[in-house]
Amino acid sequence: MPVFVKVDEYKEILDVLDMIKGKMREIRGTLGSINSLRNEEEAELAMWNRTINEIEKKIESIDGIMFKPEHTE
Amino acid sequence: MKTQSEEIFFVQVKAPNEIRRNILEILRDIVEVLKKFEKFKLIKHQKLEKITHLRLLLKQANKMMSDLKLKLPQTSLRAVVVKEAPKLPKKQVYNKGRKKAEEKTQKREPTELERLESELNAIESKLKGLT
Predict the structure, then answer these.
(1) Which of residues 34-53 of B touch A (CB under 8 A)?
(2) pLDDT at res. A73
(3) What are phi and psi of B130, to 5 degrees?
(4) How far is residue A5's CA from residue A69's CA, in Å, rounded to a whole number?
(5) Backbone angle region of B92, left / alpha / beta, with phi > 0 → left and psi within -120 to 50 → alpha
(6) What is the ipTM of this complex?
């Protein structure tokens, strides 16, 4: 059973569809930038982890030296 | 009493230069971490702003979709659903285990981003159906 739509209404529908498509593109772009920001966040956290590990190693080294004075060996 | 206070003892540090170098390196690393923390805060702020913007865009898209629904003719017509061919019993047995594993993985709470992504996909599929 065919459905008929008035020409002016049909044009309006097409306009709304166009607007929705544009909005979807905008949404897709925003979502992409959120994803890249999340990746940046994760990279920063990984870098912190590495730096903290390095600091821990250095503190251990200082600890080792300080608790073994020259004459106690 | 006076002689007691004059008796000061010292402990020789084995590698003073190495310790000094290590302390300076640690200080440098800590300053770097603090700098990175500032950058991290900025990224987090940007991300939150983007999420707020995304929420707004989704609301707008939702409103547009309801406008479109109002503009479309009101009919009781339904799209023809194509029935899928029945699957083989062997495959069904194999799929049962797989489905259970999938259900287990799906049990975890979806994040805000995942929820927004699924919402976006649903809207896109609706849009495709219309066009």
Answers:
(1) 36-37, 39-40, 43-44, 46-47, 50-51, 53
(2) 47
(3) -75, -35
(4) 93
(5) alpha
(6) 0.72
